[in-house]
Amino acid sequence: MSTRKPWRTRVSPEDGAEPGDEDGGKNRQFITALARGLDVLRAFDADDPMLGNQDIAARTGLPKPTVSRITYTLTELGYLRWDAKLEKYRLGSAVLGFTQAYMASMVVRDIARPHMQDLAQDTGCTVGLGDRDRLSMVCVEVQRALSNVILHMDTGTRLPIGRSAMGCAWLAHAPEGQRRHVLDALAAAEGKDWPALRDHIQQAEKEIADTGFCLGVGTWMPDIVGAGCAFVSADGQTVHAFNIGGPAFVVSEARMRDDIGPRLVAMVRAVQADAQRRGYR
To answer: Which pTM was predicted?
Structure first.
């Protein structure tokens, strides 16, 4: 199993902040039992698609007896499947209904796809569109150049919101309430590393104010050069973010700053114009 920092349950679906104590605390509308069940499902990922109850308990911070009851219930409902040979669970086919419904609701994804294809081919880079999930940006659409040397990023890839150009672009344009909650959650998660990360985010916001995009040079992955730019809906309430990037030995920082980054901004403006013509708000 891959190593990672343990993550806690009871994170608000709206803003990434914990709503209160074990019985609902500050937010009486928050259903802790439901949040625990969803966190068990979130424990599975592409790196570790098969998990036992002990693995899930370690990831979620939930007591193992609680995890056992939740996994039993989710298995009965079809959201998990039990592999008797490995004595582990994997996600069940029932979760695909959520994926299909979510993708169908992402109108901007269909609008952006041809623009992303053109930009990827013209620059030889990989172009992604992301949506926020807690303290990550999740790629919901990826287009690549027809090249053997590309940035391998796929639909479902997660990028840390404070250490990726895509994430910093989202932070720079998010509604203030959501932005503040995410920054507070980042500060709590990062501990002593927060001041340096805060400075990085502030520098990215300054770049966006000056140029419309921010650079990401080795911040998400070593030797990867990228840029990020936000997409804001017409009503200002929905923010997604695009990124573009490639290996540093193929795409220099200077080229990303002077040529590709401005092209990304132009692409996002074209997507916004198309979205407005189609009535996307």
So the answer is: 0.83
- Of 148, 153, 125, 129, the C-alpha closest to 140 is 129
3-state secondary structure of 91: strand
CA distance 205 to 255: 20
Pairing type for strands 214-217 and 239-247 reads: unpaired
**Rg for the chain, CA atoms, rounded:** 20
Phi, psi angles (nearest 5°) of residue 279? 80, 15
DSSP string of 207-250, one letter each residue: HHHHHS-EEEESSSSTTEEEEEEEEE-TTS--EEEEEEEEETTT
d(CA 65, CA 37): 13
- In degrees to the nearest 10, what's the CA dihedral of 83, 86, 89, 94? -30
pLDDT in tens, 147-203: 655 667 888 899 999 999 999 999 999 999 999 999 999 999 999 999 999 999 999
Tell me the helix, strand and coil percentages in the chain, rounded to 5.
45, 20, 35
pLDDT digits (tens, 9 = 90+) for 78-91: 999 999 999 999 99
- CB 28 within 8 Å of CB 75: no
Residue with tokens 């990124």: 243
CA distance 206 to 112: 26
Phi-psi region of 19 (alpha: psi -120 to 50; beta: other; left: phi over 0): alpha
Ordered DSSP codes for 110-177: HHHHHHHHHHHHHHTSEEEEEEEETTEEEEEEEEE-SSSS-----TT-EEETTSSHHHHHHHHHS-HH
Helix (H) or strand (E) holding 89: strand 88-91
Cβ atoms of 111 and 242 closer than 8 Å: no
